[in-house]
Amino acid sequence: MKQFFVIITILFSNKTFGQTEEIYRLTFGDKSNFTLTTLLNHKLPKTLFIIDTTETWDSNRFWLPDFDNRNKEQVIKRIQNDEHHPYFHRYLFSDTVLNKLFSDKEKQKLFKRSKALKSKPVNLNASNYKTISSSKNTKGFYFVTSEPIISDDKKFAFIDLTVFCKETYKQPLNETYFGTISIVFQKQGNSWKRIAKKDWLIL
């Protein structure tokens, strides 16, 4: 019996790993995910450089603890002139179409799961993207990615990216923040399809 549970655990882990790798491939293999990099007269990079350690999740993507969902319209009206409020540039479910796909309970589960994820090594390499150990010898765009999150029902996947742009090799880190990209995929048949993308240009 113990051996049976070990086998099931290994199979489940392999399936989850496979889905994670697929989300990475769909994210970095599709340059339409990176239109943010064409703003402010920049050009889409030919090769996407990705730091080889994942970033921790911004849990406000899934749930805003101080956001009263019972009085959502009143809260939105109160904050609508505050463009820097997390509701507008971080919270995924400010997208009303996406919001209808998830219950508050599911959002809170994703919030808790994202908080529990730690940074870990990542190795991503293909014809148009590759991982690098440091941005020290990089000029132009580079990216830091989160670990993808798969929903409990295995129907949705989420990935979060921070975008940096270095004008010079020695430019300080706090001067290189360019924006963020968050992408949501939905399982449709045997394939994952992008259903939402939230870009935020950091000015």
What structural category arises from helix and sheet content? Answer: alpha+beta
Number of strands: 7
Shape call: globular
Beta content: 15-25%
Q: How many DSSP helices?
A: 5
- Helix content range of the residues, please? 25-40%
Largest sheet: 5 strands, antiparallel
Low-confidence stretches: 4-14
Q: Helix and strand succession? A: HEHHHHEEEEEE
Mean pLDDT score, rounded? 89
Radius of gyration: 18 Å
Distance between the terminal alpha carbons, to the nearest Å?
58 Å
Characterization of this structure:
- The structure is a single chain.
- This protein has 203 residues and is α+β, with helices and mostly antiparallel strands.
- The chain has a domain at 2-57 and 117-201.
- It is 28% helix and 25% strand.
- The protein is built from five helices and seven strands, in the order αβααααββββββ.
- The strands form two sheets. Strands 3, 4, 5, 6 and 7 form a five-stranded antiparallel β-sheet that branches. A two-stranded parallel sheet has the order 1-2.
- A hairpin with a 2-residue loop joins β6 and β7 (191-201).
- The chain is globular, with a radius of gyration of 18 Å.
- The model is unreliable at 4-14 (pLDDT under 50).
